[in-house]
Specification:
The protein is mainly alpha-helical. It has 10 helices and no strands. α6 packs antiparallel against α7, α6 packs across α10 and α7 crosses α8. The radius of gyration is 61 Å and the shape is rod-shaped.
C-alpha cells in the first residue's frame, strides 16, 4: 500500500510538471500512456486514483490533416479567384451597357431636337404658305378691281360724254407723253406729287396725306435690295396695297377716280403712275 501511494504521488508530480507542454503531449505518447494509461505496475492502484485515458492524434495524422486543409484552402482560393474574375467581367459588361445606354439617350435627345427644329421649320413654312395664299387672294381681288376699272374706261370711251372721250382725254395725252420711271426716286416723286394734289383737291388735311404716303412707301420698300434691281416689285406693292387714305379709299381706287375725272394737273402725275404700273406690272398691256 505504501508503494502504491508513492507511485501515484510520482505520477501526479510528473503530470503537474508537464501541464501546458504541448511537446510532451505530442512527442512522448509513452509518457502520456504512463501517466493516464494502466500497466502491470498499476494493478494495485485504485480506480479512483487512476486518471481517464485520453487519445491524441499522432504526428503523422496531423501532417495529413494539415495537407488536406491546405489543399482545401487552395481550392477555395481558386474558386474565389474565379468568382472575382466573373464578377469583374460582369462589372465590365454593366459599364459597357451603361455607356451604350447613354449613347442611345444622346441619340434620342439629338433626334428629338432635330424633330423639334423640323416642326418649327414646318410651322414657319406653313405660315409663309398662308401668307402667300393671302397675297394671291389679294392680287386676284385687285386684278378683278382693275378689270372692272378697265371696263369702265372702255365703256366711257365707247359711249362718250358729248365730245369728251377717252381717246380725246387729257389722261390719254399725258399717258402717251409719260415715260415709265427707271429709278425708285422717280417713282416715289410721282407718287408724292399725285397724293399731294389729290388731298388738296379733295379737302383732306396735308397731315393725313403725308401719313398715307409715308406708310405706303414703307410697305412698298419691305425689301431694300429691290431698290436698284427690281423696281417692278415696288410698283406692284403700291398698286395692290390695301392701305386706305382717311377718306377710306386705297391708292388704286384713287388713281382710277382721277383718271375718270380727267381734270387738273394731277392727271399728269396719274399718267406717270399708270405708266409705271402698266410697264412694270402688266407687261404687254397698252392703252
Amino acid at each position: 500500500a505504501a508503494a502504491a501511494r508513492d507511485n501515484a504521488k510520482q505520477k501526479k508530480t510528473l503530470l503537474a510538471s508537464s501541464k501546458g507542454d504541448d511537446n510532451v503531449k505530442q512527442n512522448n505518447p509513452s509518457l502520456l500512456g504512463y501517466l493516464f494509461g494502466s500497466s502491470k505496475s498499476d494493478d494495485n492502484v485504485t480506480k479512483k486514483d487512476t486518471p481517464q485515458t485520453t487519445t491524441l492524434p499522432t504526428a503523422g495524422g496531423s501532417e495529413k490533416e494539415m495537407q488536406d486543409l491546405k489543399q482545401e484552402i487552395a481550392k477555395l482560393k481558386a474558386e474565389l479567384g474565379k468568382l472575382k474574375s466573373e464578377n469583374q467581367k460582369t462589372k465590365d459588361k454593366a459599364t459597357k451597357l451603361e455607356k451604350e445606354n447613354q449613347t442611345n439617350k444622346d441619340k434620342v435627345a439629338k433626334l428629338e431636337k432635330e424633330n423639334e427644329e423640323n416642326k418649327k421649320k414646318e410651322s414657319e413654312l406653313e405660315k409663309e404658305n398662308n401668307a402667300n395664299k393671302d397675297k394671291l387672294t389679294k392680287l386676284e381681288s385687285t386684278n378683278e378691281e382693275l378689270e372692272k376699272e378697265i371696263k369702265t374706261l372702255k365703256s366711257f370711251s365707247e359711249a362718250g360724254e358729248s365730245d369728251k372721250t377717252f381717246q380725246k382725254s387729257l389722261f390719254k395725252k399725258e399717258y402717251k407723253n409719260a415715260t415709265a420711271p427707271m429709278y425708285m426716286d422717280q417713282l416715289f416723286c410721282a407718287l408724292r406729287l399725285f397724293i399731294t394734289e389729290y388731298v388738296k383737291a379733295e379737302g383732306i388735311s396735308a397731315a393725313d396725306g403725308d401719313k398715307f404716303l409715308r406708310i405706303l412707301q414703307e410697305e412698298a420698300m419691305k425689301h431694300p435690295d429691290e431698290i436698284l434691281t427690281k423696281l417692278q416689285h415696288t410698283a406692284q406693292r403700291l398698286w395692290t396695297s390695301d392701305l386706305k387714305l382717311s377718306n377710306g379709299r386705297p391708292l388704286y381706287s384713287i388713281l382710277n377716280e382721277v383718271i375718270r375725272k380727267d381734270e387738273g394737273v394731277i392727271v399728269t402725275h396719274a399718267a406717270v403712275l399708270a405708266r409705271a404700273i402698266n410697264e412694270l406690272c402688266v407687261a404687254g398691256r397698252h392703252l
